[in-house]
């Protein structure tokens, strides 16, 4: 999601509610892909059947005109070598830079506009505005890959898209590489430090509890989340008061609202009662890339690296 900042927090949290726990952090788990026959190059053969969020989806032949309405899916497609097969992506898909960004929307999908792009496969994270049924009526294959609820979902979705696009071998390589990096970083985390942290989604401020996808990433490093003690968990995304955060006095602060909202350590220090926070006084404010911190594709390994670096520094 997530993932959720001042400008988009309401929208994203609304999407979570509308989709009934099928989205970022708390999503229904995508079922593992059904086995597909492999060709001699190990890339997978067609037809291929994928177990996605919208059930078993059979793709008759290798897609060459993919439309992605999910920034995470876009990142995955390019990472697994399917970039040349992508014809159009939604207005939020800004990575990698070469992705063919359009005005198509994943939050307000328009079936006619999507069909006009002549897709032979559409990948999306949310079934809003009846888009899945609408595309099915005109015979366009659709893969619904809801926001990951845990890291295993990320690996599954990478492999799903590999099987769906004929890039199974590269997808396995990417999924295994991300998992190995995260596992290695977690294994190297200092033990017994019991550091407390606050992850800021936006300047409201909304936070994320340990039950969310991003919260689980932090948990790998033995960190304690101040948001877990919030009086109202709000589906994993509680709105915290400045007083609550100041009283908790976290050892580490991670900002997921740097690009959207211009937040940094200097901005935090200007908030009433925040200048004395331990994280500010000890230079433990981590400015994350908003997109890396809110998507669940291959760059989740970059998020894990940033958390690892901060924990190592704080523990030294």
UniProtKB/TrEMBL annotation:
<dbReference type="GO" id="GO:0071281">
    <property type="term" value="P:cellular response to iron ion"/>
</dbReference>
<dbReference type="Pfam" id="PF01497">
    <property type="entry name" value="Peripla_BP_2"/>
</dbReference>
<keyword id="KW-0732">Signal</keyword>
<protein>
    <submittedName>
        <fullName>ABC transporter substrate-binding protein</fullName>
    </submittedName>
</protein>
<comment type="similarity">
    <text>Belongs to the bacterial solute-binding protein 8 family.</text>
</comment>
<dbReference type="InterPro" id="IPR050902">
    <property type="entry name" value="ABC_Transporter_SBP"/>
</dbReference>
<dbReference type="InterPro" id="IPR002491">
    <property type="entry name" value="ABC_transptr_periplasmic_BD"/>
</dbReference>
<feature type="domain" description="Fe/B12 periplasmic-binding">
    <location>
        <begin position="65"/>
        <end position="316"/>
    </location>
</feature>
<feature type="signal peptide">
    <location>
        <begin position="1"/>
        <end position="27"/>
    </location>
</feature>
């Amino acid at each position: 999601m997530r993932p959720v900042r001042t400008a988009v927090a309401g929208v994203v949290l609304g999407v979570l509610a509308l989709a009934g726990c099928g989205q970022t952090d708390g999503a229904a788990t995508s079922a593992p892909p059904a086995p597909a026959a492999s060709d001699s190059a190990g890339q997978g053969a067609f037809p291929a059947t994928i177990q996605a969020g919208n059930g078993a989806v059979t793709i008759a032949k290798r897609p060459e005109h993919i439309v992605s309405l999910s920034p995470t899916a876009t990142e995955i497609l390019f990472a697994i070598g399917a970039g040349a097969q992508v014809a159009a992506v939604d207005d939020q898909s800004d990575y990698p830079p070469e992705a063919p960004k359009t005005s198509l929307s994943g939050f307000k999908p328009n079936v006619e506009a999507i069909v006009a792009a002549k897709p032979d496969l559409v990948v999306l994270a949310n079934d809003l505005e009846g888009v899945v049924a609408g595309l099915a009526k005109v015979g366009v294959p659709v893969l619904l890959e809801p926001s990951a609820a845990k890291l295993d979902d990320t690996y599954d979705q990478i492999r799903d898209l590999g099987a769906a696009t004929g890039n199974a071998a590269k997808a396995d390589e990417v999924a295994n590489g991300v998992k190995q990096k995260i596992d290695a970083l977690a294994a190297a985390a200092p033990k017994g430090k019991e550091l407390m942290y606050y992850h800021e989604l936006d300047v409201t401020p909304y936070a994320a509890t340990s039950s969310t996808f991003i919260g689980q990433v932090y948990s790998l490093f033995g960190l304690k989340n101040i948001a877990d003690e919030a009086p109202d968990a709000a589906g994993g995304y509680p709105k915290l008061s400045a007083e609550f955060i100041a009283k908790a006095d976290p050892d580490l602060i991670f900002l997921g609202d740097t690009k959207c909202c211009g937040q940094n350590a200097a901005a935090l220090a200007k908030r009433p009662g925040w200048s004395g926070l331990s994280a500010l006084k000890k230079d433990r404010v981590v400015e994350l890339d908003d997109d890396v911190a809110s998507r669940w594709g291959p760059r989740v390994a970059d998020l894990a690296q940033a958390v690892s670096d901060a924990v190592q520094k704080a523990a030294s």
